[in-house]
Design a protein that fits this description.
single chain; seven-stranded antiparallel β-sheet; 3 helices; about 280 residues; four-stranded antiparallel β-sheet; alpha+beta
Length: about 280
């Protein structure tokens, strides 16, 4: 198949036009189209204005790589690749920093050792304090209070140098500086209180319910039995008979024995006297 060039098509068109003109047929105007000319082969006007088209000069447009400029093209490609790689490296955390950064000084090992030694020393001191406190508590045990619900003996007899206990308080006899004897109360904390004094020499110490009873030998050669109510407002007094007379005897008391609510007193004369505490 062969194709006609534009010049040949133009010459054909002109020839046909002349032929029609010679035959007396004339077609003019915007719609005058030669009868023998194909519309697809007719020259057409470009939609782009003629003044806007320019001819490329040397050095413009795409450059085709040939054997003559292959080495130069390779160098240009390498330079552009290196530029792109450098651009990536300078982004984010890899970007260059300006100004002077603060200098980080290494930790001094001596400082670390001092801190560790201080902590260990603190623990040692706390351990020593705990041990000393524990040992002190063992050396000074707290007096035990009577257990709840456990009743203390209410009728107790002891010698003149002994003691009796009532509601957690201990009672004993102590000599005073003026030749008399005092009944001393000692609580669980070691606090002492003088309850009362007797003028004679005590023979024994008796607890009967809440009453302290002291049989004594007096300096005038007689004896009697003194009673004192614990926690009461009354003063100590000699035990009296049913008539209200103080019970006494001559000589000295040999023995005084508590038997229930009665104290059996035997004196140096051999006489025995029963003294009722109720």
């Amino acid at each position: 198949m062969s194709y006609a060039s534009n010049d040949e098509k133009y010459r054909r068109s002109a020839h046909v036009t002349d032929r029609h003109a010679a035959g007396g047929v004339s077609r003019t105007g915007a719609h005058a189209v030669p009868e023998d000319v194909d519309d697809g082969s007719a020259p057409r006007q470009s939609a782009v204005p003629a003044g806007s088209l320019k001819t490329l000069s040397a050095g413009q447009g795409a450059r085709v790589t040939t054997r003559d400029n292959a080495a130069e093209a390779a160098d240009i490609a390498r330079d552009r690749a290196a530029e792109r790689s450098r651009s990536r490296r300078l982004r984010g955390r890899n970007r260059p920093r300006y100004g002077k950064e603060p200098e980080r000084k290494p930790v001094n090992p001596k400082f670390v050792l001092l801190v560790i030694a201080g902590v260990v020393g603190l623990f040692v001191i706390l351990a020593i304090v705990a041990v000393v406190t524990f040992l002190a508590a063992q050396d000074n045990p707290q007096p035990q209070e009577p257990a709840a619900g456990v009743e203390e003996p209410q009728q107790v007899q002891t010698t003149a140098d002994g003691s009796v206990t009532y509601q957690g308080v201990s009672y004993s006899l102590e000599a005073t500086g003026d030749g008399t004897y005092a009944v001393i109360a000692s609580d669980s904390k070691g606090n002492k209180t003088q309850e009362f004094t007797v003028r004679g020499t005590p023979v024994s110490l008796i607890l009967y319910n809440s009453v302290i009873v002291v049989p004594e030998n007096k300096s005038d050669g007689t004896w009697d039995v003194v009673a004192y109510t614990i926690g009461g407002d009354s003063a100590p007094m000699a035990v009296a008979d049913s008539s209200g007379n103080a019970i006494t005897g001559r000589g000295t008391i040999s023995t005084a024995t508590l038997d229930g609510s009665v104290v059996h007193v035997t004196d140096s004369t051999g006489a025995t006297t029963d003294i009722a505490l109720e």
